[in-house]
Amino acid sequence: MKKSTVRLVESALLLAIAAVLELISKLIGLELPFGGTITLASMFPVVLIAYKYGTKWGLLSGFTYSIIQILLGVKVVSAMFLPGDDQMILWQAICVCILDYIVAYTVLGFGGIFKGKVKRDNVALALGVLVALCARYLIHIISGAIFYGAWAEWFFTQEGFYGIGAKIMETFSGTGLSIVYSIFYNGLYMVPEIIITFVVALILGNIPQIVKPAKNQ
After folding, report:
1. 144: burial class by Cβ within 10 Å (0-12, 13-18, 19+)?
2. Is 3-211 CATH 3.40.190.10?
């Protein structure tokens, strides 16, 4: 089997595994009410592709996975375009799709940037996870602050903040409040996601069969 074919097949399998992990996470109730899911390290297979086969192939794979994510979240995506309470202005809906899906998942392709620069594979992979997922987090923060900032006051006045919400409301307003809201809300799922995937990378990165490119037979 040709090297390019092996790479393509393995990448497809890893993307499929990522999608399955995402679906399982949703089924067991790890999805937040207004979007975002704490997954069972579903980003790890995508980052692993970038680590094994380089940044260019990783970015292409990340882009491919962004399309898969749009298909998996078709109910949420379609709600932004169809008439109803969740409908957005067309340009806003398009921008949200570009940022929260296409850009946010494509940047996972940077997960291999430390390969060859750090001696131990598991450390290099874990650092790549940190960079790639933090980049995804940043994209969600930007998108959330711009397009969902109007929810900030409502969000911080809900029960369960134990005075923290009131303090935030006193300290921030306008754009600042929108940014804090986006950092906080997206952090509810992205921070656990980063930690979980980082730990998985440290553990699985010690297994040569996992981190080394597949050999053509």
Report:
1. buried
2. no
Q: Which of 28-37, 51-60, 89-98, 167-176 reaches the highest mean pLDDT?
A: 51-60
- How close are the terminal C-alpha atoms of the chain, in Å? 5
Q: Is a pLDDT exceeding 90 seen at residue 73?
A: no
Average pLDDT for 44-67: 98
Q: Three-state SS across the chain?
A: CCHHHHHHHHHHHHHHHHHHHHHHHHHCCCECCCCCECCCCCCHHHHHHHHHHCHHHHHHHHHHHHHHHHHHCHHHHHHHHCCCCCCCCHHHHHHHHHHHHHHHHHHHHHHHCCECCECCHHHHHHHHHHHHHHHHHHHHHHHHHHHCHHHHHHHHCCCCCCCHHHHHHHHCCHHHHHHHHHHHHHHHHHHHHHHHHHHHHHHHCCCHHHHCCCCCC
Provide the CA 182 distance to its chain's centre, in angstroms. Answer: 15
Q: Round to whole Å and give the CA distance between 101 and 84.
A: 22
Phi, psi (5° rounding) for residue 155? -60, -45
Decide if 62 contacts 109 (C-beta within 8 A): yes
Query: What's the token pair of residue 56?
Result: 């260019």
